[in-house]
Amino acid sequence: MMANEEQANRKVKPTVVVIGLGHVGLPVACTVAQAGFHVWGVERDQAKREQIAQGNCPISGDEPGLATLLKEVIAEGALHVAADPSECGQVDVFLVAVETPVDPLSREPAYEALRGALTTLGPHLRPDALVIVESTIAPGTMEGLVKPSLEAASGLSAERDFYLAYCPERVMPGKLLANLKTCNRVIGGWTPQAAQVARELYRHFVQGELDLTDTLTAELVKTTENAYRDVQIAFANEIALLCENSGADVYRVRELVNKSPLRDMHLPGAGVGGHCTPKDPWLLLHGTRGDLEAQLIPTARWINDHMPLHVADLAEQALSQVGKSMSDARVAVLGYAYLENAADARNSPTIPLVTRLEALGASVTIHDPYFESYDVPLHKTLQGSDCLILMVAHKQYPALDLAEVKALMATPVLIDGRNVFDKEKARELGFLYAGVGNL
Ligand SMILES: NC(=O)c1ccc[n+]([C@@H]2O[C@H](COP(=O)([O-])OP(=O)(O)OC[C@H]3O[C@@H](n4cnc5c(N)ncnc54)[C@H](O)[C@@H]3O)[C@@H](O)[C@H]2O)c1
């Protein structure tokens, strides 16, 4: 009787387990729960588990709707939290959303989290269940790692017994819930039927188009879209460096270039960060290796990685113009996040910038309203500083009164990494101004 009741309930509300409750997994779990499924979030970080189980959102920064939705789905009992899939009963759908970084030195995929997720879910895989990987992975990973791991752990076949699909996420911090619901999605099925079964799930909460394909194509689509963005930014950064050599303003050049049909030049700046853009080009290259050695994609990575060091060079040159060396300078850096108005510092360009400045002997103070440890009163950061470096265009910074800023500083050197300040106005006030792509 109990078993029948349970079965009847499961038919009404399939059980979905989301593995990894991070920037992707948590909004996914909340959205799937809101769509009427019975959701378990499996998370290995105990502190995060406890926070989420109490309805408190661990993701800080401006994330519209997420904290409220989490509270709702926890209060309604639509989302539960667990340390292991063994706590979740009979599972209909597994969604894997764990981190997939690359090794900082070798640039090879570092799949410890993915392997861990596959190992924990494998033994709980039942016939007719659906497994979807949402993490970004190198082309060929579904075939070379995911499918064999799951088959070995479960004794089941992805051709005959369960459904296996790859559906990468396209969310951006600051728009996690909105992107989840509205972005078009590509669904790569290990079999055409698996892609169709996965589409039935996403239909419940995705308003964008759902394009079906095979797993390899979907893996290539995701890594290519981020490599494409990285290359575009690197192009803009290279033009910025050339404009510096020519004494031109890259932002004016870009504005006029983009008036030409079919041009969409990206914004240059002080570097590229985040969990995804700096590593996904390496995942693409890892998964497509052959006789051809790619040139453009690794070069773009090098250019973008170099930009924070270029900012340090600009600061050093500007300071030397006013007779100061970096070794006796106090430098105030505005922005620790990798993205404006976000509390995410993964691969933030500010990190290599500060490392370089400190290696040159500077005394560095960081300000960032989105990080508790750097959310000090701004005047304290600026007081007595010899150089101000703007790294992140947080919404609080364009409103700064430059005259007040100058009054607080010991030496008025201003390095603008994101074209936030008005160069002419800064110079009129007496700043020694240097902007990336606009000296
Ligand atoms: N952050 C983004 O904006 C974004 C956008 C698109 C795609 N992606 C991709 O989505 C994936 C996840 O990214 P993220 O930003 O959410 O990462 P994250 O680091 O914020 O979250 C991953 C979570 O998974 C947990 N975890 C790791 N291994 C686990 C395991 N074996 N069992 C249970 N929990 C485990 C971690 O503790 C962490 O909480 C990555 O592949 C990333 O490239 C991210």
Strand content: 5-15%
Instruction: Please state the second-level CATH architecture of the largest domain.
Output: 3-Layer(aba) Sandwich
Structural class: alpha/beta
Give the strand order, joined by hyphens, for the main sheet: 3-2-1-4-5-6-7-8
User: What low-confidence regions span 5 or more consecutive residues with pLDDT below 50?
Assistant: 5-11
Cα distance spanning the termini: 77 Å
CATH topology-level fold name of the largest domain: Rossmann fold
Description of the structure:
The protein has 439 residues and is an alpha/beta fold. It folds into two domains: 12-208, Rossmann fold; 297-435, NAD(P)-binding Rossmann-like Domain (Rossmann fold, 3-Layer(aba) Sandwich). It has helices spanning 2-12, 25-34, 46-53, 66-75, 112-121, 141-154, 176-182, 192-202, 215-246, 250-257, 280-287, 296-321, 350-359, 378-382, 402-408, 423-428; strands spanning 15-19, 38-42, 79-82, 93-96, 130-133, 163-166, 185-189, 210-214, 330-334, 363-367, 387-390, 413-416, 432-435. The strands form two sheets. An eight-stranded mixed β-sheet has the order 3-2-1-4-5-6-7-8, sandwiched between helices. The protein has a five-stranded parallel β-sheet with strand order 10-9-11-12-13. α9 (215-246) packs across α11 (280-287). It is elongated and about 75 Å long. The protein starts with a helix and ends with a strand. Nicotinamide-adenine-dinucleotide binds at residues 19-25, 42-45, 48, 97-100, 113, 116-117, 120, 135-136, 169, 171-173, 275-276.
